[in-house]
Amino acid sequence: MAFGGNPFTLDHLLGYARTAEQLGFDMLCANDHLVFTVPWLDGPTALAAVIEASSQMTLATTVALVAVRGPVPVAKALAAIDRLSGGRLLVAAGPGSSPGDYHSVGVDFGQRWARLDEAVRALRVLWGKDPAVRRSGSAARAPKPGCGGSPASGTDGWRRPTTPHRRCSPKRSPA
Question: What one-character-per-residue DSSP string does the chain give?
Answer without folding.
Answer: --SS--S--HHHHHHHHHHHHHTT--EEEE---SS-SS----HHHHHHHTTTT-SSSEEEESSB-HHHH-HHHHHHHHHHHHHHTTS-EEEEB---S-HHHHHTTT--GGGHHHHHHHHHHHHHHHTSSS-EEEETTEEEE-PPPSSSSS-EEE-TTTT-TT--------SS---
